[in-house]
Write a structure and sequence with these properties.
single chain, alpha/beta, 12% strand
Length: 1405
């Protein structure tokens, strides 16, 4: 097809649509937190009771619960079940799990808390006999396993395991070369057609078939194994633009025949089998996006229309003899699912299945389709079709496509195909990559083992295909991985989700249920869908990992409501990122939901209630849509209540699904019915324990299946007493999860911690759940009556300051950092038109007055940074309240002034605008955030661009915002080079605004010597936040600016003179002499016997218990973040609390940190992942050879070292150290060992910070980052101790207090690349390779080699008793040249990475 047409379809679907999607590129990625979230009261067939929860103003009509008289009370048992777990109910027990974790003493089983007053054991009901497991022989449990059809499928599979096969290039590019005019497209047959036909390439198969044949043949002659039919736009939908929809079947059949003829001819002439592929394009409509900004729920095509259109196209292709079908250029997965649905229908009803290939399109470097899905989520969403080949094409060139095809290659067992464009489009819409350039790039793909099929898309020609075929010839094909995601339930929204035995309990959000939430019902019935979306968004923000949608309400058109709401969710990436659970008892409503979502969801639910035929019919439709399914324990007889009968129904359903509906067992979820207990009716009493027993049976007998349930029914007998209900839920869920319950619809926000339940109530709930007390109902009622009213909190009296006037109240709120009343007080001031005629006057008046007091107190040292940040939070809330009123006023003023012909200048109450950014490659921003808050408090407008900010974005934003100052921040040394680049660019662009430099890695010296000389305008180093206001105010005050700048220039000139003089004075030993001095080191290798590590190789420690890290925290850096520094003798922790000046504030921040730490740990808001590796090694000069664990003669990688060269080092009696000195030299024949690790406690930090940012809470943003950083360092400290004592075991007898550990009193060191002992950050790359860090932990390296998440630590381990920390210091040119040669790097590149360690000026050549 024409390349511009194909690209237009991908990135040029109506422009208005793209505007809607653009924001998706930037939405934040919330980690799914493994904690319980609010959930629904489940309403399904057979549910005993339906209930509304707390957001209801009043309950909807519901079934009456049978009246009963509780039996007489008997003695209350004082014991718990024998296997009562000892922790909170979030613990998940998987007896067969094998996980790597830090060692812990498991020999002592904790007893139940003494406060429970429980000493005996409640006898459990008699155990249920466990039937044998259902046989699943021949069933593939791997969700991504491809379908290899007989005949051509088997032939292709065998061939692709031998070599990389070649796909043809762009049909459109070749058609362009013929320069066809309108008449060529029309031919004789269509010369009188009423619409223009130029550009309808598919029509050429009818009007110029020989040209299409020639194109096919030219690609096949060039070496292509496959040629695609000329049918990219071969649907009635696409052809309707030309009025040719009636010819679609004929077009496709004829195109298939032409392609087959070309294949047959070339096969005959060469003796090499060639294959035809039926090309199925995406159409020019999209199911997931609205073409109207005003109506995000609107779609200009339906799923059924797409299925019909694709079905017609596929029939033509198959009747034309096509051998393979390819659904390609997928920019919207929903469209692709419609095509796959149509194909599956035809295979089932009429046609013999042929191989199906699927190729998606990633539209930009964000790694997402146009409809917002990540590469992995796209893959999951189409794997139900079991495509033989899965890959990517179009939109990107090979270089840009590389990371995404790498991802596809890792996560699918299908064969992988890749056919990128010949580079990115140039200004004229053409493609510039020559065959040589494109083939070289794709050759590297092949050499990395990524490809099974390769070809070209837009811009590629037979010459490109020939070059590609030659380039990959002889390179082995990708070896398909096996058993990927074995036993995993794969789901997706915009982002992927995996559920397996290692997953924590999965929370299904429940508030989007019209039958379970009065609030949501009211919003939907009254057509307030936007507000209803906020209900969904809040659930996701609160941690829901799946979102349940139910529209079953008598007053609703449930089908239309489901479609509309799911369509709206697609327009909200913050919601759409999680999978959906389409919930309805009406199957037509279920189908409506399935047709509206592009991702892989769950259907809730089906059952055998209407018999096997109905059950299987629904199951097959669900499978065809690619969804997982919830199956209720309900059959033709009725709802199961006993464990044995529950299993019987589930077992029967399971066998039907896998044997007759071809379901993957991973996609089956059973709901064994949670029914109400403690009703006073005897038959209800065992419902809880029967569910728990049924769960155990299902998990034991039905391999791969999951168990779910809705919790609210359990306690319905006690509606109105939430304390009792919540305790019952907590106890039940605690045991159900232990029995194997995987997911559920729960209201986690109201679930108490198991051990926090009062002992009497806990005892009662345990008795109720386990059904061991016949009088439990009466006892629970008595208890409920005894606590009635105690949960109501008394309202405290209003604070005295609330009686002040408005201005004083606002001032008090700002100075004290109280945001509780600031909105109402701000509104009261705004309403006072006599004092404040305009909203801006409120800001300029009482708000700025309050912030001025804050600034004065901070400047005089009477307020501390944490207090200032809290004040800023209050200010932001007040201003955000006024902004809409100011915007409205501005619009009215502009309109009025324009009517009068007056030029309009935008009014701004700020003192100036500052653009702040952490430079490209760096992810650290705590200090920058603090500077931004302090400047904001002083009435400067701060535009914070965040982290990893490219130079162009910084400078373009500065120009767009008319910034007065640009501020750059960075933590790692490579950031210094990027700052130099930004300064040069500012000079090149002839900008004339000041540049501020800050961050932990920066210094006044580096700024003066390296950065300031690149920019003729003011360039000033700012030490910390407390100095920022002084510097900014001086630079923006015309009366002070020249004098201030002159002083800076004069000071920096002196610094430069001193620096260059120090270089002249610096004397370095020649490298060889430095090495000879190292030989004086006394390590006694002749007697040294290295300790052999107990755990060689890689050990992964993911989701490490944060509570175990807290004792290892070094608190001093925490106080440094808040700029709280005690004076001697109260400088350190905990002495800082004794400091008369900062002690009280330090105590407040410490207490606040403890509260947040407690919340983080309990709610698991942050996640700690780590990896450690121990390898045999030997020193080879200044380098360390890392050896194979099993074959010590094999070098697997090299860690390079730098040696001290300072002459004064030797003159003062020292030696010239290098890290390799601490490892036994190769010449000794000793096999020594080296360790390395990478840890992070920052997973979840960004999401938590974003939450606080939305709440305008800068204080907690900084607190989260500071604590994540402390936890990461604590993780490093804890892990080092475990390595010394256990994994390596070279010091297994050590016993140090935390203070001793922080003072490094133990044997061994852990120096980090980029720090004094080895200042080269690039050595991290070796560590990442050796440990597979990103794969094992998710910790990434940026292009500047910063670790992401920022709260991460990595280093090497050395065990030698004489190993010690040291600083390499300045190194000379001879060592740089030698080092570059050893690393096979250019000298210039080494100088770039070691810029701050050079004893010479590399630019003075």
């Amino acid at each position: 097809m024409h390349p511009s047409l194909r690209l237009g379809l991908v990135v040029g679907v109506p422009v208005i649509t793209i505007l809607v999607v653009v924001s998706w590129r930037f939405y934040r990625k919330w980690r799914r937190r493994p904690t319980f979230t609010p959930s629904k009261d489940e309403v399904k067939e057979g549910s005993q009771i339906t209930e509304h929860t707390k957001d209801s103003e009043e309950p909807l009509p519901m079934q009456e619960i049978p009246t009963f008289k509780p039996p007489k009370s008997e003695s209350l048992p004082n014991s718990l079940p024998e296997d009562k777990p000892k922790n909170h109910f979030q613990y998940v027990d998987h007896s067969n799990d094998v996980k790597e974790s830090l060692p812990m003493d498991e020999s002592k089983e904790e007893e139940p808390a003494a406060s429970h007053e429980l000493s005996k054991v409640i006898p459990k009901p008699s155990s249920v006999p466990v039937p044998a497991k259902v046989k699943t022989d021949g069933i593939k449990f791997c969700p991504t396993y491809p379908k290899i059809t007989d005949g051509v499928g088997v032939l292709l599979a065998e061939e692709m395991e031998k070599r990389i096969m070649i796909l043809d290039g762009a049909m459109g590019t070749m058609i362009q070369t013929y320069k066809f005019e309108e008449a060529d497209f029309r031919g004789e047959e269509f010369k009188d057609h009423p619409k223009p036909l130029k550009g309808d390439n598919d029509l050429l198969s009818l009007t110029n078939p020989e040209v299409i044949y020639e194109i096919h043949k030219s690609y096949l002659d060039a070496g292509a194994d496959f040629t695609e039919t000329n049918t990219f736009n071969g649907t009635a939908i696409a052809q309707s633009d030309y009025g040719m929809e009636h010819l679609v079947y004929r077009m496709n059949k004829t195109s298939a025949e032409i392609a087959n003829r070309a294949c047959a001819d070339v096969t005959k002439s060469t003796g090499i089998r060639r294959f035809s592929i039926g090309a199925i394009g995406p159409t020019n409509r999209t199911l997931s996006l609205s073409p109207s900004v005003e109506k995000p729920e609107y779609r200009n095509i339906t799923f059924d229309e797409l299925v019909r259109a694709y079905g017609e196209q596929v029939r033509g292709l198959l009747d034309g003899g096509i051998e393979i079908l390819m659904v390609e250029t997928i920019f919207d997965t929903a469209n692709a699912k419609a095509a796959l649905y149509a194909i599956d229908e035809l295979f089932e009803s009429k046609y013999t299945p042929v191989p199906v290939f699927v190729s998606g399109t990633i539209v930009d470097k964000s790694g997402r389709t146009l409809s917002g899905q990540t590469t992995d989520a796209f893959m999951i969403s189409v794997t139900h079709a079991q495509p033989m080949c899965l890959g990517l094409n179009c939109a990107l060139g090979a270089l840009e496509m590389h990371p995404f095809i790498t991802s596809i290659s890792r996560v699918t067992e299908a064969f992988v195909l890749c056919y990128p464009n010949a580079g990115l489009p140039n200004a004229m819409g053409g493609y510039d990559e020559t065959p040589e350039i494109m083939s070289a790039k794709l050759k590297s793909f092949a050499e990395e083992g990524l490809l099974n099929i390769v070809g070209g898309c837009c811009g590629s020609t037979p010459a490109h295909i020939k070059a590609i075929a030659e380039a990959v010839k002889g390179i082995p094909p990708r070896v398909r991985p096996t058993n990927l995601f074995i036993d995993s339930l794969l789901l997706a929204g915009l982002e992927p989700m995996k559920v397996n035995k290692y997953s924590n309990f999965v929370n299904i959000g429940e508030r989007c249920n019209v039958a379970g939430s009065k609030k949501f019902c009211r919003l939907i019935v009254s057509d307030q869908y936007e507000q209803a979306l906020q209900v969904a968004k809040l659930q996701v923000e609160n941690g829901a990992q799946i979102l349940d949608i139910n529209m079953d309400e008598g007053m609703l058109d449930s089908t239309a409501a489901m479609t509309k709401f799911v369509n709206l969710i697609s327009s909200e990436p913050d919601i759409a990122k999680v999978p959906l659970c389409i919930d309805s008892s009406k199957f037509e409503v279920v189908e409506a939901g399935l047709k509206a979502t592009q991702a892989r969801c769950i259907v809730n639910s089906i059952s055998l209630k209407e018999g096997e035929e109905d059950f299987l019919e629904k199951a097959r439709i669900i499978k065809r849509h690619g969804a997982a399914v919830v199956v209720m324990a309900f059959d033709e007889v009725g709802q199961a209540t006993g464990a044995t009968r529950k299993l019987e129904i589930c077992q029967r359903s399971y066998q039907l699904l896998i044997e007759k509906a071809n379901f993957n067992p991973n996609d089956i979820i059973f709901d064994p019915n949670i029914l109400t207990i403690a009703t006073g009716i005897d038959e209800h009493s065992s419902y809880g324990v029967e569910y728990i027993n049924a769960t155990k049976l299902i998990k034991n007998c039905l391999p791969g299946a999951r168990v779910s349930g809705g919790l609210s029914n359990l306690s319905f007998a006690f509606r109105g007493n939430e304390i009792v209900r919540e305790a019952m839920h907590s106890v039940f869920l605690y045991h159900a999860i232990k029995a194997g319950m995987d997911m559920g619809i729960v209201n986690a926000g109201n679930l108490p911690v198991y051990d926090d339940i009062p002992s009497v109530l806990l005892q009662l709930c345990e008795s109720a759940v386990w059904n061991v007390d016949s009088n439990i109902t009466e006892k629970l009622l008595d208890y409920a009556q005894s606590i009635k009213g105690t949960a109501t909190k008394s309202q405290s009296s209003e604070e005295e300051w609330r009686s002040y006037d408005t201005e004083q109240r606002l001032e008090h709120s700002l100075v004290k950092g109280i945001d509780k009343y600031v909105i109402e007080d701000t509104e009261e001031a705004r309403q006072d038109k006599s004092k404040y005629p305009r909203p801006l006057n409120v800001i300029e008046g009482p708000l700025m007055k309050g912030m001025s007091i804050v600034g004065d107190l901070f400047g005089s040292g009477k307020m501390f940074l944490p207090q200032v940040i809290k004040s800023a939070r209050v200010m932001k809330k007040a201003v955000s309240h006024l902004v809409p009123f100011m915007e409205k006023e501005k619009e009215e003023n502009i309109a009025r002034m324009q009517e009068q012909g007056i030029d309009v200048e935008e009014e701004d109450y700020h003192l100036g605008t500052i653009v702040l950014a952490t430079v490209k490659g760096d992810v650290h921003d705590i200090g920058k955030n603090i500077v931004g808050v302090v400047l904001g408090c002083n009435n400067y407008k701060v535009v914070d661009l965040g982290v990893m900010t490219p130079c162009d974005k910084i400078l373009n934003t500065a120009i767009e915002e008319k910034a007065d100052i640009v501020g750059l921040s960075g933590l790692i040394t490579p950031s210094l080079e990027e700052m130099i680049h930004v300064a040069k660019e500012m000079e090149r662009r002839k900008m004339n605004i000041p540049l501020l430099i800050g961050g932990a890695t920066t210094s006044k010296t580096h700024t003066a010597v390296k950065i300031a000389p690149q920019y003729t305008k003011p360039c000033v180093h700012v030490l910390d936040a407390s100095k920022s206001v002084v510097v900014v105010s001086a630079l923006l005050d015309d009366s002070k600016m020249k004098e201030f700048f002159d002083e800076v220039v004069e000071e920096y000139e002196d610094i430069c003179d001193d620096y260059y003089q120090s270089l002249k004075n610096h004397k370095s030993l020649p490298l060889e002499k430095a090495r000879s001095k190292a030989k004086l080191l006394q390590f006694h290798w002749d007697t040294y016997k290295p300790v052999v590590p107990k755990k060689l190789g890689i050990t992964v420690l993911n989701d490490y218990d944060l509570a175990k890290l807290i004792p290892y925290i070094d608190w001093k850096p925490f106080f440094d973040v808040w700029q709280l520094r005690g004076k001697y003798p109260n400088r350190g922790y905990p002495k800082i609390f004794n400091d008369t000046e900062v002690g009280p504030q330090a105590r407040k921040e410490f207490d606040a940190a403890q509260e947040m730490l407690k919340m983080i740990v309990e709610k698991r808001l942050l996640k700690a992942n780590g990896v450690v590796a121990l390898f045999p090694a030997c020193a080879d000069g200044d380098d360390i050879r890392v050896l194979d664990v099993d074959d010590h003669s094999k070098v697997v990688d090299t860690l390079y070292g730098l040696r001290q060269q300072a002459e004064r080092q030797v003159e003062q009696g020292g030696t010239t150290l290098c890290i390799s000195d601490f490892v036994a030299p190769k010449s000794t024949g000793i096999v020594d060992y080296i360790g390395m690790f990478a840890v992070s406690a920052g997973f979840g930090s960004a999401e938590l910070c974003n939450k606080y940012k939305e709440e305008l809470d800068d204080y907690n943003v900084i607190m989260v980052k500071a604590l994540a950083d402390r936890l990461a360092e604590a993780f490093a400290e804890a892990l080092h101790e475990i390595v010394r004592k256990d994994y390596w075991g070279y010091n297994d007898e050590e016993s140090f207090a935390t203070d001793d550990l922080l003072q490094i009193k133990y044997q061994g060191i852990r120096p980090a690349p980029g720090y004094p002992s080895q200042p080269d950050h690039t050595e991290k790359c070796t560590m990442w390779r050796l440990m597979n860090v990103e794969e094992h932990t998710g910790i990434k390296l940026t292009e500047s080699l910063a670790m992401d998440p920022p709260a991460s630590v990595s280093a090497l381990y050395f065990s030698h008793p004489s190993s010690s920390y040291f600083a390499v210091g300045k190194i000379a040119k001879d060592q740089v040249v030698d080092y570059a040669k050893r690393k096979s790097e250019s000298v210039a590149n080494v100088e770039k990475w070691l810029a701050s360690s050079l004893s010479y000026d590399p630019e003075a050549r």
